[in-house]
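Input sequence (217 aa), recorded before submission:
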Amino acid sequence: MKLVNIGESNSVLNSYIAEIRDVRIQKDSMRFRANLERVGAVFAYEISKTLEYSEKEVTTPLGVASVNTFDSKLVIAAILRAGLPIQNGMLGFFDHAESAFLSTYRKFGKGDYFKVRADYCTCPSLEGKVLIVADPMLATGSSMESALKKLEEEGGEATHIHMVCPVASRYAVDQLLQRLDNNYTLWVAAIDEELTSHNYIIPGLGDAGDLAFGEKV
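Predicted structure, token format:
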């Protein structure tokens, strides 16, 4: 697996990450969603540099211009609920992309033990396409692995898979680096070193789904 941390370079992205972490600004759920959308747009731009391109001719009012545009067919998947704003930001760039949606959650047992369940998934065919999976946080990597398995079951095998997780734990990054091959790229904007016994990222940003859409019933 390839790891790309675009937060290591100074850019406006870091301002968006700062705001989604800021406990004061988080109180404005509309701004929180808007910042996640802007984060998604930045990642989309960076991922666009990795796609396959070819030269095309475009007819203008005064002649013909040559331009390189990408040929890759894309599917952008959101892990519900929190991945929706990131997906929406990406769709603003990749306007011809198809969409996929899936739900994953932790099913707790005794103590801190839990299993990740992926109960719902809708996905177009992934054959011959590039898949982008969006989720704001990557704590243990279990939810992402379950999501990838479910998407493959529903859509088949993609030519390449990009995982967009703006805030990730060091533990999850290390786990995925060991388990996933070169067909995967993990994109992050920040890697936090601490993971609690309940698998919360510190400093993290809290529950992104609740911050974006309100607390669960």
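Checked by second reader. The longest strand covers residues 98-108.
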